[in-house]
């Protein structure tokens, strides 16, 4: 029904406007008695065999929603009814910011892809904290970044502010230094500044009575040498793991009219590369740390490939938009069929 009826209708409208409309639709329908139960009955797979314990957390199933969809923690409860085992909010910054000028979100239909140059648009970390205070049982990841106007030499402070604010309200943290849509942000992926940033956050973490897993989200555009640096940095700082991967700046092989738009590319064109990065990190590190696989998952088989390449968990974003919520159920069913 989604791909035959709902998606063609939604795709007639501006992507960012329809995103907000969909949010409102899910929120309103979820308040109607019986609708939340209906969503769960359609998409949630309840089976103990799907449970995963990763970096000290118990996930009901290994399929999560990637950051960027529910940036401000406005809909995480309702979205969990669509079968996700965990929801990642953000990217959040210390101060609210509008992000880049519109139009900034583009569908590439022929490529089953999206280009975005949103630019960390969010209401600020404190607004999200207020919404998270009413959480009751949804496993939440907090994806954190720096404000656009914060120079890189002061970036660590922005990440610390977000870490401190979210600490009591999220289950794990994701350090985002890999978005291509904030000027100079990816420079923080260089070995020295990245080690310093992660070590600072880890030191704060270790000073807490109970530590929260800290993950690093990396770009798919890193070279093998840079990926080896990532392995060294994870080992040195003892963070919990890696999310592979963010969006790409590559435009290789695209067919769509919007392929020249600036921003990060997600969707099917990323499927192969993100799996290659997962496999490289897993093999070269000798499976030393967990990996969350994300990038181009549009089918249950795509998810299985990520898991077989070395991912412990997977996340959806663009595939969720193109394939609909039935994809979450299909992946979990496929996992069960292989046990």
CATH architecture: Alpha-Beta Barrel
Q: Examine the coordinates and then state which fold CATH places here, giving the name of the CATH topology.
A: TIM Barrel
What fraction of the residues are assigned to beta strands by DSSP? 15-25%
**Helix/strand class:** alpha/beta
- Helix-residue proportion: 25-40%
User: What name goes with the CATH superfamily?
Assistant: Aldolase class I
Summed up, the helix count is: 12
Q: Cα distance, first to last residue? A: 29 Å
Oligomer: single chain
Active site: 179
EC number: 1.3.5.2
Binding site for substrate: 71, 116-120, 176, 181, 246-247
Catalytic activity: (S)-dihydroorotate + a quinone = orotate + a quinol
Task: Summarize the structure in short.
The chain is of the alpha/beta class and 339 residues long.
Describe this structure in words.
The protein has a single domain, classed as Aldolase class I (TIM Barrel, Alpha-Beta Barrel), CATH 3.20.20. Strands 3-4-7-8-9-10-12-13 form an eight-stranded parallel barrel, surrounded by five helices. Strands 5-6-11 form a three-stranded antiparallel β-sheet. α8 links the parallel β9 and β10. It starts with a helix and ends with a helix. The protein is of the alpha/beta class. One of its GO terms (cellular component) is plasma membrane. GO terms for molecular function: dihydroorotate dehydrogenase (quinone) activity. Pathway: Pyrimidine metabolism; UMP biosynthesis via de novo pathway; orotate from (S)-dihydroorotate (quinone route): step 1/1.
